[in-house]
Amino acid sequence: MTGAQRSVCLKAILIVLDSVGIGAAPDASHYDDEGSATIPHIATACGGLNLPTMKSMGLGNIPGLLPGGIPIEGVSPVDGPIASFGAMQEVSEGKDTITGHWEIAGLHISPGFGLFPPGPPSFPEEIIREFEERTGHKVIGNSAASGTAVIEELGEQAIKESAWIVYTSADSVFQIAAHVGVIPLDQLYKACEIARELCDPLRVGRVIARPFTGGPGHFERTEDRRDYAFKPTEKTILERLHDAGVPVFCVGKIEDIYAHRGITDSVHTGNNKDSQKQVVRFFEENDDGLIFANFIDFDMHFGHRRDPRGYGQCLEQTDVYFREFLPRLAEGDVLIITADHGNDPTFKGTDHTREYVPLLVYRPGHEVQNLGIRQGFYDVAQSLASHFGISPMPRGESFL
């Protein structure tokens, strides 16, 4: 189908609640994540969650679908939910942002992206040496670390030595932190482009720019983060829609995750509230197309920092947003809410967790269904292909 052949205007809004898992996946033990359950454990830690909109959509019905599913305190099952509900099990290898988002977009990642030992050193000496030579700054760190902790530990040294802080995690990432008062932002971004080139042979999922400001004891990461993703070898649903003349609007870090491919327009936001405003703007200004957003605060501010109460408050703010957004949708529109992985802030460590993710599908004028457990996040991509009437994706089953 070409753009010239499209005569029907349709809208779809796909929102990824970054890291909002709902219970350990069957293979969680392979990732040392058995017992994780992001939303249920947050609800318990908060003494219950107040999510009336997502509750009415069927969020509380989802744990009952899962083997050993844990009820969400404050979000009980409802009779007659207003949205179709289910859960999705990831089939690709990994539990990181790229793996989850790419599977949502129709891909199957196998083998998984390259991982690195905790170190030090984590990254091969030849990679670090060439990176230093080409950027003109030395590397410190070179180990697995929490982003906020490593900046507190090495930030002062990075300032004195005009150095990069390079670190990894349990995900396939090469992260570069730099104090913007010492190494300007444009130099950090250029260094990330160099690192991306060096990391491609190792199949590193993402190179991430992590700028920070402040002084010892008061270092703060800015919202100028950028992700440099490994390029997909197969067309995603974004590219297939774009090729068929369907506009694709992206919000948050989506443009980076998909290497800026298959995108009509995008806004790179750094927090949930800005992302929420841009979703509304794209929705109001366009009669046709996919609006694809990542709400990053859950993962960035609360999951990795092990703050269940902050995470719970963030969920409640987002629920208010959905309450105000749902009435905007008309018959023919579809809103899909899901996640890309878990990040249980009550669990051990500071890394993502291998979990089922929730699936809520709101379609005014359509029958509500129990969508069950979907085998593969790529059912989302297949459903979007079905919604917009383009050729089917290579894998997945439509839930529309």
Structure, described:
- Helices cover 31% and strands 20% of the residues.
- The protein is an alpha/beta fold.
- It has two domains: 3-109 and 232-388, Alkaline Phosphatase, subunit A; 125-229, Phosphopentomutase (Alpha-Beta Plaits, 2-Layer Sandwich).
- The strands form two sheets. Strands 1, 2, 3, 10, 11, 12, 13, 14 and 15 form a nine-stranded mixed beta sheet that branches. Strands 4, 5, 6, 7, 8 and 9 form a six-stranded mixed beta sheet that branches.
- α5 links the parallel β4 (139-144) and β5.
- The radius of gyration is 21 Å and the shape is globular.
- The model has no long low-confidence stretch (mean pLDDT 96).
Structural class: alpha/beta
Percentage of residues in helical conformation = 25-40%
Q: Write down the Rg.
A: 21 Å
Q: Which percent band covers the strand fraction?
A: 15-25%
CATH architecture label of the largest domain: 3-Layer(aba) Sandwich
Give me the CATH superfamily of the largest domain: Alkaline Phosphatase, subunit A
In total, the number of domains comes to 2
Summarize model confidence as the mean pLDDT.
96
> What's the story with the biggest beta sheet?
9 strands, mixed
Kindly provide the name of the CATH class of the largest domain. Answer: Alpha Beta
Distinct helical segment count = 12
Alpha carbon gap, first and last residue: 20 Å
